[in-house]
Structures are given as structure tokens and as C-alpha cells.
């Protein structure tokens, strides 16, 4: 019995270690490119958006109440800023075995139902999730396209109003893009992400 408990404890420890190993990118870091399957079955990367000046990369999902609460705000970000050169690219970081409502088929259903105007990408094995160090849903990374490559400018929350009822909210994402468009560095480059933890399957 003690041996079984010890094995379970070791397995759980290994799982937690894996879940916490990825270091979250920060402002100034290179933003890793990717080629992930969109809900329309086409692959999407940064290069898909030839005329982009930057990107709003959002790790979000079908299931988290925070992600659901921010859904319209994410849609609104894309509608406002894609014409200005900053499209939203959404990535689902949850493992579909650990979160069965986050399968690719259910991502397709949600995107169709909500008429997502942006790509909603599946991340098999959570590779890109780990490269960015995304911890929660939603977790946002605003990226600039520069002569030296894609660079992270801001990491954290979309705003400081997860309940969606504060008209005086600080719109972090919008403020960052406004700064970038004016040729300035953002005054705030990192905030605490607000949301549910990324769901991972237990390691054998």
C-alpha cells in the first residue's frame, strides 16, 4: 500500500513539474512561429497574415468561464485591430483528453456557432503552449513584426475587468496596440493573467 501511495505521489509530482516547467515569455523575447491547424482544417502561421504589423495571440478555450466571459471582447479586438494590422490568432492550449469539451471537433462547433472572425487553432501535444509558457485561459501575447523578427511586446490579461461590468476598466491590450501604432513602446508590458489553468493529462 505504501509503495502504491509513493508511486502515485511521484506521478503527481512529475505531472505538476511538467505543467509548471514552461517559462512564460516576456516583453523583448522572440515570439516563436508556429504552423497549427485551424478549425477550417487549414494551417495557420504568422506568415498567413502577409500585411500584418503584429499579432494578438490569445490562448483560450471552449470551457473556462473566464474564456467564455472574454469571448466577445476577443472578437471585438479582432474586428477593431485586424484592419489596422493586428489580427487575433486564438490557440486552444488544453489537452482534449484532460478537457473533453476542448476537442478539435468541439472547437469547430464553437467557432461556427459564435462566428469567430479569427483563426482558432489546435495545439497537439501543447507544444506551442509550452513555447509561449501560456498558463491560463485566456492568456494574451501581443507581438510586433520587426525587421529582426517577431517580438513579444506585452504578456498578460486583456483588461482588468474579468466580470465585464466595469466601464472604467483598463484596456491593457488596446493601450499596448495604441502605443505600438504611434511608434512607442508600451508603458505596461506585463500584467497578471486572469483565467483557468491550462488543462493537461496526467503522465503515465
UniProtKB/TrEMBL annotation:
Ranges for the Thioredoxin domain? 25-182
Per the UniProt record, which residue ranges are transmembrane? Answer: none
Q: Which InterPro entries does this entry report, sorted A to Z?
A: AhpC/TSA, PRX-like1, Thioredoxin-like_sf, Thioredoxin_domain
Q: Which UniProt keywords apply?
A: Signal
Q: Which domain of life is it from?
A: Bacteria
Which residues, if any, are the signal sequence? 1-19
| Name of the protein this chain belongs to | Peroxiredoxin
What's the source species for this entry?
Answer: Flavobacterium anhuiense
Amino acid at each position: 500500500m505504501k509503495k502504491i501511495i509513493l508511486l502515485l505521489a511521484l506521478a503527481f509530482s512529475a505531472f505538476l513539474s511538467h505543467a509548471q516547467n514552461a517559462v512564460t515569455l516576456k516583453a523583448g523575447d522572440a515570439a516563436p512561429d508556429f504552423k497549427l491547424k485551424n478549425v477550417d482544417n487549414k494551417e495557420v502561421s504568422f506568415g498567413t497574415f502577409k500585411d500584418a504589423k503584429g499579432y494578438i495571440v490569445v490562448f483560450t478555450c471552449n470551457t473556462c468561464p473566464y474564456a467564455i466571459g472574454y469571448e466577445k471582447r476577443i472578437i471585438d479586438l479582432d474586428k477593431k485591430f485586424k484592419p489596422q494590422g493586428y489580427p487575433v490568432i486564438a490557440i486552444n492550449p488544453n489537452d482534449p483528453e484532460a478537457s473533453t469539451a476542448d476537442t478539435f471537433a468541439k472547437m469547430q462547433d464553437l467557432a461556427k456557432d459564435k462566428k469567430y472572425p479569427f483563426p482558432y487553432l489546435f495545439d497537439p501535444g501543447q507544444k506551442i503552449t509550452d513555447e509561449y509558457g501560456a498558463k491560463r485561459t485566456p492568456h494574451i501575447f501581443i507581438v510586433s513584426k520587426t525587421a529582426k523578427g517577431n517580438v513579444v511586446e506585452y504578456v498578460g490579461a486583456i483588461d482588468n475587468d474579468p466580470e465585464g461590468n466595469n466601464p472604467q476598466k483598463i484596456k491593457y491590450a488596446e493601450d499596448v496596440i495604441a502605443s505600438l501604432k504611434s511608434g512607442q513602446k508600451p508603458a505596461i508590458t506585463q500584467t497578471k493573467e486572469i483565467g483557468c489553468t491550462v488543462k493537461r493529462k496526467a503522465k503515465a
